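Lab meeting tomorrow. Look over both lines:
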Amino acid sequence: MFGLNSSLFLLFLLVVSGSALAEIPKANIAVIGGTFLNDALLESGILTESFRVDTKIGESPLIHYGKIDEVPFYYVHGHGGAKYLQAWAALYELGVQEAVGGATAGAINPVMKTYDFVAVDDFIDLNTQRPRRFPQEVTEKEGLILARYVPAIDPLVKDLLFKSTLKVIRTDEALDTINVFDKGVVLQAAGGRFETAAEIKSYAGMGGDLVTMSVGTEMSYARQLGINYACLVIISNPAEGIAPWEFSDLSEIYQTLNPVSLEILKDVIPKLADLPAKGRVDEPLRIHPTMSKNKE
């Protein structure tokens, strides 16, 4: 009855139980990965633990944990995969206060060239298929979340991210031709395909400087959850119809700039730990006043 298979089964149960009971390491900073980073952080040796969180709206994607200069942080790879809501709900439940993200994008604004970095400051969201807001049970203790986005990002986080980008790029002569912009409007397209030249022309008329697929969602979700967020976007190609480009160009851009993005993160994460917890821009921009005293 208690042969080899039974013993292995009991050992398996102990391992699972121990893992479930282990305390999740604490951090109040998060990095949301995208193509600006790809595998650079995963393969850096900085991340030491991984776990999932069973949130009120389902299980999160894998969340990694590590430290830079003894400052702990969480990392979510690839924008959280298909679990956008669950990833951010998990960060909210874990008590994250500061977050940085990023992506690569097509440049609509002709001033922005391939390889340039943009610390974006506003967004236009055309991805209406992705959930726009969180189910009320995620933030039910806070009241009605109906967030405003003026400004759309946290200025303190953006300023640190911009300065760290300048610091890293300007100390490497090989990167001398790269520009760093401290503002830009990112248009989040519906995704699933590249845009047509006609669509890009219309996006330019709407005020978009660059087009990508995920960071608009991140700006929106972070504000709703009271997480102070800013993001860094690398121009990987001209937007369609702006100038010719080839898919083969992307590999060189990723190979060159993903390690640069990692160096920027290594510089900015310790600085995020020194930001004030209170008095931030999002505090008056989230909770809508009660509209009716009568509830059904």
Q: What stands out?
A: The longest strand covers residues 228-238. The chain has a mean pLDDT of 90. The chain is about 30% helix and 20% strand. Residues 248-272 form the longest helix (25 residues).
